[in-house]
Amino acid sequence: MRRPGTDLRRHALRTAAVSTALVAAALAAVLAATDLIVEHSLTAAVDQRLADWMGEVAGAGGNAAVADSDFDAPILSWIALPGGRCTPVGNAPALPSGLCSAGGPASAAVNGIPFRVEGRRLASGALTVAGESLAPASRQLSDVVLAELVVGPLLLVVVFAGSLAIGSRVGGSVERMRQRQLAFTADASHELRTPLSVIKAETDVALAGGDRSLRPALTRVSGEIGRMRRIVEDLLWLARFDSEPEPPEPADIDLVTAAAVAVERFAALAQARSLSLEVESPELTLPISIPPDWLERLIGVLLDNACRHARSRVVVGVRALPGRRVEMSVSDDGEGISESELPRIFDRFHRATAGGEGAGLGLAIADAVVRSSGGRWDVSPAQGGGARFAVAWPLGRAAQPISRTTLPTAPSRTAS
């Protein structure tokens, strides 16, 4: 069983991780959109400068000459000649022939450098092509991306830390409230157990007396007291199970022997109800790692439940499964469990049948044990009718199936 503090930390970490993942996804989408907007704005600014430059050239009578220009100048220009060739103006590099007839703004590589070029036919009839390197814009965009790569992870760290702190703070309050509730349940169950025991004892003494006029009423009172006492015991066990900071120390227990001992323990109950109680197990030692009182409680709940619902037969089975696992099952030939009831059979105070003797806590106890011991349920209809409750566990630590032929074991028994 995991400690409540461990569960709280895991829940807070899971909440913080989910929050951070959602923020990361939203941040990635926002930053990607921001990069596209920045890139579009930088390119639009270059296009605007090219258009302004073309306007100035047109106003100067079509003179595109740029004095003392070099390749690093903001704007370079070319004059288109017949035959599709371009003459560079100043120190502009040679322009690829495909760009000499450029019209509207277009991106192209000039000497391996990304350029934005635009062509316009002036009033003189000459086609002038102007271009500006996109390298400065690319550097600005790279600076923006670098800033995002630095700030983004820092923001996610802050979000994760903040979510973890908030989750731990809120979860701590909830956990303290839960612990107070568990402590109240345990204390109330403990306090109720003593007066119920006294009332039960006094009722038994009265039943042993000679006044037969009170016997029917006292018998009913005694039965109800016994039922209330079982409910209190189950509540107390669940409360202690939920509130224990540390689980009991597990031990490697032979499941075959445990099943045989449980069948022996329930033999009298089965005989009183005219039931056949059998155990089917291989000649192997199949150990599992579980606290002994947990396993005893689990088998007891399953056998008691099966004996209350069986018509004539209850079978306890133990077998080895592939993948170093072992399964224990308890089957009965009773009315079975409807499909609609299966999702709720382990809920506390839920009874699958209207006319049951229990309070709906037994299977909740069994489920708590199975989940906390690493087991896995398999609830299904039994062959020939009824219900089959099976639990599979990994084999015990450093354990191997051992032949039982050399070990003293309890034999398979049938109680009827």
How is this fold's topology laid out?
Elements: H1 4-59, E1 76-80, E2 86-88, E3 106-110, E4 113-121, E5 127-133, H2 135-207, H3 215-243, E6 251-254, H4 255-265, H5 267-272, E7 276-280, E8 284-285, E9 287-290, H6 292-309, E10 313-321, E11 325-332, H7 362-372, E12 376-381, E13 387-394, E14 402-403, E15 414-415
Helix pairs in contact: 1-2, 2-3, 4-6, 6-7
Could you characterize what this model shows?
This protein has 416 residues and is an alpha+beta fold. The protein has two domains: 4-140, Beta-Lactamase, CATH 3.30.450; 251-415, 2-Layer Sandwich (Heat Shock Protein 90), CATH 3.30.565. Helices cover 49% and strands 19% of the residues. The radius of gyration is 41 Å and the shape is elongated. The model is unreliable at 66-72 and 398-416 (pLDDT under 50).
CATH top level class name of the largest domain: Alpha Beta
CATH homologous group name of the largest domain: Histidine kinase-like ATPase, C-terminal domain
* Order of helical and strand elements: HEEEEEHHEHHEEEHEEHEEEE
Query: Structural class of the secondary elements?
Result: alpha+beta
C-alpha geometry: elongated
- Which residues sit in consecutive blocks of at least 5 with pLDDT less than 50? 66-72, 398-416
Tally the helices.
Answer: 7
- Rg of Cα set: 41 Å
**What is the strand arrangement across the widest sheet?**
12-13-11-10-7-15
Range of strand content: 15-25%
Average pLDDT number: 79
What's the number of domains? 2
Which fold name corresponds to the CATH topology of the largest domain? Heat Shock Protein 90
Q: Helical proportion?
A: 40-55%
Structure summary, number of beta strands:
15
Distance N terminus to C terminus?
37 Å
Sheet of most strands: 6 strands, mixed
